[in-house]
Specification:
Elements (H helix, E strand, L loop, with lengths): L1 E5 L3 H12 L3 E6 L15 E4 L5 H6 L7 E4 L4 H14 L4 E5 L3 H9 L3 E3 L1 H14 L3
Parallel strand pairs: 1-2, 1-4, 2-3, 4-5, 5-6
Length: about 130
């Protein structure tokens, strides 16, 4: 599967490494070249500096041939905009978007984006940790 990940933070780098290890063709896109230091030197995927909201950058990243686009940048607005472009303009079949605000995540999920909220996941994990031993 051809996968384009926008954002090479801890989550993006970890996911990119896992997907490459599983045999997927992965491109990681970030606005800051320094972010790629999170990837091991042996990372077999492609690294590209640029914004996932820029059409020229998306085209250079191969968005037209991408099977899955994952938006993991630090800002909700950028993630949502890039994901909507991937889905609506470029017809990417699977689009996954991190949205930190759980209410916005639900709203955009209803609009057809596959979203997840680390805030909501964190609340669930914290609650489970409190009562796991009880």
């Amino acid at each position: 599967m051809r996968i384009l990940i926008m954002g090479c933070g801890r989550v993006g780098a970890g996911l990119a490494t896992q997907l490459v290890d599983e045999g997927h063709d992965v491109t990681v896109l970030d606005t800051d070249a320094f972010a790629f230091h999170r990837l091991l030197p042996s990372f077999a995927g492609r690294r590209l500096v640029g914004s996932g909201t820029d059409d020229r950058v998306l085209q250079d990243a191969g968005i037209q041939e991408t099977d899955c686009f994952i938006a993991l940048a630090s800002g909700d607005n950028r993630n949502i905009l890039a994901s909507q472009k991937a889905k609506e303009i470029y017809g990417v079949q699977t689009v996954v978007t991190r949205v930190k605000d759980p209410l916005r995540a639900e709203l955009f999920n209803r609009m057809g984006l596959h979203t997840f909220s680390p805030t909501k996941v964190g609340v669930t994990l914290a609650h489970d940790a409190i009562f796991r031993g009880a």
